[in-house]
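task queued by scheduler; priority normal; single chain, no ligands, no partner chains; default sampling; output format set to structure tokens
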Amino acid sequence: MKAKQLIENLILRYPVLGPCRESVERSYKIMEDSFSKGKKLLIAGNGGSCSDANHIVGEMMKGFCLPRPCSKVFEARLMSVDSIRGAELAQKLQRALPSIALDNHSAMSTAFMNDVENGGALVYAQQLYGYGVDGDVFLGISTSGNAQNVVNAAVVAKALGMKVLGMTGCSGGSLLQISDVCICVPEQETYKVQELHLPVYHTLCLMLENHFFGEA
């Protein structure tokens, strides 16, 4: 299914997201361009948005709705290393869209927060500084758009030459001002914002999977 069709399906199922049509499409194009160049997606959020960051990585790093068999070239390489293990690996490994949820690195995060004053507000920024390269994409998820650790990370991402995407509630907050594109869903209460974030990022994951792993 084409990207535009998937967006239309999203709006059909969630008419309230109609005003987000353009920002969803633009966000998709930025991620598609980045992945096409061999770059990666870095994601951060807090609380429920932290869970969403991990959820997105789960859809990106393995098959979501389509099979993603490893390439014949890589299969041959596996077999040249170990014909027995290589055969199983070639059969079961799935191609990925390289994505990292920054909130998963507890040892590094707690060390930084312990060692650096105001480290809690800077920890994602530190990770962006370490992981991010020109051409990568940072997706900051914040229902208010004002989570300081997420906004600080967005500043670092821009300084590194990365594209910044935001996913927020209706106001967009500070994240709106610094993002290349910000998807501001039309709700304000935290749980209602999060309820609309899920179908949006599922649609983005479907669009990307279809582009990179769907039939030509």
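post-processing summary
- The domain at 3-61+96-213 is CATH 3.40.50.10490 (Rossmann fold).
- The chain is about 60% helix and 10% strand.
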